TrEMBL record:
It catalyses: (R)-malate + A = oxaloacetate + AH2; (R)-lactate + 2 Fe(III)-[cytochrome c] = 2 Fe(II)-[cytochrome c] + pyruvate + 2 H(+). GO terms for cellular component: mitochondrion. It is found in: Mitochondrion. Belongs to the FAD-binding oxidoreductase/transferase type 4 family. This is D-2-hydroxyglutarate dehydrogenase, mitochondrial. Transmembrane segments: none annotated. Catalyzes the oxidation of D-2-hydroxyglutarate (D-2-HG) to alpha-ketoglutarate. Also catalyzes the oxidation of other D-2-hydroxyacids, such as D-malate (D-MAL) and D-lactate (D-LAC). Exhibits high activities towards D-2-HG and D-MAL but a very weak activity towards D-LAC. Its cofactor is FAD. Residues 51-230 form the FAD-binding PCMH-type domain. Its EC number is 1.1.99.39. GO terms for biological process: malate metabolic process. GO terms for molecular function: (R)-2-hydroxyglutarate dehydrogenase activity; D-lactate dehydrogenase (cytochrome) activity; FAD binding; metal ion binding.
Length: 486
């Protein structure tokens, strides 16, 4: 296949025939079937333009029953399937490798119910995150997760990747906020677990297995999630700092001094702001007078504006007095809040515009977080591969300090095996040596599956493989991904 030179199609999978298409036509509306070559392109390539598959068929079911019929047929006929949400994934998990059938969840996008007392929202898996958040905003609630891709990603995709994002510090991971799931298993069985209960200790918590399983165990069709109340008072501040020690110091103090109102603590470096400025990401403007080595975005969310303002101002004054930060601004209204967030949320897009970008999404203890960026830069320089006219043009660091999650991005002129061979396994060995995870929140897909052993023991990987063959004995669900090839 085009971008997967080292991989071979599994010949055990059946090739799509006219007979198969004729069957799908009996269960789906004409608009639910895409075969047009041009229309297929967007489903075959990923957000980073790094991976490209060769699927000849996209199915867009409109109900759980239709998903069930599709999977039962694929299971019986050994047709490989790739579930696809908003196709914003960053590890190549949502696009086919060869000719797998894409099952797009885009036509399943309704809210099924909302409980105004508990905040339990039940919706179709194809609902767009931002649309759900708007729905909740009108009712005084908020989605417990937020990410730069909110305008396109689906809640089913978020659940399947166990997406972290910008609010995890405050509301925790989806393993805690998801109350229940409806999942169609590979053989077509509908697993109805759309509970809205906060407490339920009856049996194995099966939904947890599907959270973060990246479409390898079935298709998530419905999600029940606990939405918190939307905070009435939001503040956002942008700080400029000289060292990563200062970033850490500001973080420690934010936990002490802002405590319960702290809702985000994000950072980025100078290389990131340079790219944002260079590529003029819409709405992103650096309001600080001079450029800094480090930037921190702090958000507070509370219920009493005066109280929050006072706390934040005291905290910021303390940082300035003690020379922890060199400069800072506080957004004065909702538009300014959005503008500050636009800088942070624009970084992935800015990085992607630089040409090719290698994304390492690693977690580790906060004290060594930025060392990863510096060490990578030194390592590439020593190998003569970094700088003008070289293979790599910049090493960029940003991420979720509050979660110990660094986004180590390396910009290059093109995607090439040479570039990969230089950085891998170097970066994974570095991460394992520092007690980190090689994938903090983006998942494994095709880009990290064979490196799983850096973060999980052989016995854990063995058990994962047993789960996979128990639930998907034909191996039709999202093949070639997630678990190691051997
Ligand atoms: P897709 O990309 O379509 O699919 C992702 C994986 O889930 C694939 O393996 C696919 O097969 C599977 N899948 C999708 N839907 C289903 C389903 N219904 N049932 C079973 N399997 C399914 N991620 C973070 O964690 N934090 C961030 O802050 C963050 N920010 C981002 C910002 C930008 C600008 C971009 C482009 C991406 C960002 N991401 C982030 C990565 C990505 O958006 C998330 O992983 C997101 O959760 C993927 O959702 P999706 O609907 O686009 O899924
Ligand atoms: C983010 O935090 O911006 C996302 O995880 C996307 C990325 O890493 O580029
Ligand atoms: Zn992130």
């Amino acid at each position: 296949a085009d971008k997967f030179p080292h991989m071979k199609r599994n010949s055990a999978f059946k090739k799509l025939s006219d007979e198969d298409i004729a069957y799908f036509r009996t269960i789906l509306a004409p608009s639910g079937i895409t075969q047009d070559k041009e229309d297929l392109q967007v489903f075959n390539s990923d957000w980073l333009r790094k991976y490209r598959g060769q699927s000849k068929l996209v199915l867009k079911p409109a109900s759980t029953e239709q998903v069930s019929k599709i999977l039962r047929y694929c299971h019986d006929n050994k047709l490989a399937v790739v579930p696809q949400g908003g196709n914003t994934g960053l590890v190549g998990g949502g696009v086919p490798v060869f000719d797998e059938i894409v099952v797009s969840m885009a036509n399943m996008n309704s809210v099924r119910s909302f409980d105004k007392v508990s905040g339990a929202l039940v919706c179709d898996a194809g609902s767009i995150l931002e649309v759900l958040d708007k729905y909740l905003e009108e009712r005084g609630y908020i989605m417990p997760l937020d990410l730069g891709a909110k305008g396109s990603c689906h809640i089913g995709g978020n659940v399947s990747t166990n997406a972290g994002g910008l609010r995890l510090l405050r509301y925790g991971s989806l393993h805690g906020t998801v109350l229940g799931l409806e999942v169609v298993l590979p053989d077509g069985t509908i697993l109805d677990n759309l509970s809205t209960l906060r407490k339920d200790n009856t049996g194995y918590d099966l939904k947890q297995l599907f959270i973060g399983s990246e479409g390898t165990l079935g298709i998530v069709t419905g999600v029940s999630i606990l939405a918190p109340k939307r905070s009435k008072a939001i503040n956002v501040a942008l700080l400029g700092l000289n060292t990563f020690d200062q970033v850490q110091s500001a973080f420690k103090r934010s936990k002490d001094e802002l405590c319960e109102i702290l809702s985000a603590f994000e950072f980025w470096d100078q290389a990131a702001i340079k790219l944002v400025k260079e590529h003029l990401v819409a709405g992103a403007n650096d309001p600080l007078e001079s450029e800094h080595r480090f930037y921190v975005l702090i958000e507070t969310s509370g219920s009493n504006k005066e109280h929050d303002d006072e706390k934040l101002n005291q905290y910021l004054e303390g940082l300035l007095t003690d020379d922890v930060v060199q400069d800072g601004v506080v957004a004065q209204d909702a538009t300014q809040i959005q503008k500050l967030w636009a800088i942070r949320e624009g970084i992935p897009e800015a990085c992607s515009k630089a040409g090719a970008v290698y994304k390492y999404d690693i977690s580790m203890p906060v004290p060594v977080l930025y060392q990863a960026v510096e060490d990578m830069q030194d390592y590439l320089t020593k190998n003569g591969a970094f700088g003008e006219g070289k293979l790599f043009s910049s090493v960029i660091g940003y991420g979720h300090v509050g979660d110990g999650n660094l986004h180590l991005n390396v910009a290059a002129s093109d995607y090439s095996p040479e570039a990969v061979d230089l950085m891998e396994p170097y970066v994974f060995e570095w991460t394992a040596k520092h007690a980190g995870s090689i994938s903090a929140e983006h998942g494994l897909g095709v880009s990290k599956n064979n490196h799983l052993h850096y973060s999980k023991s052989p016995s854990m990987i063995h058990l994962m493989k047993r789960f996979k063959s128990l639930i998907d004995p034909q191996g039709i669900m999202n093949p070639y991904k997630y678990l190691p090839d051997n």
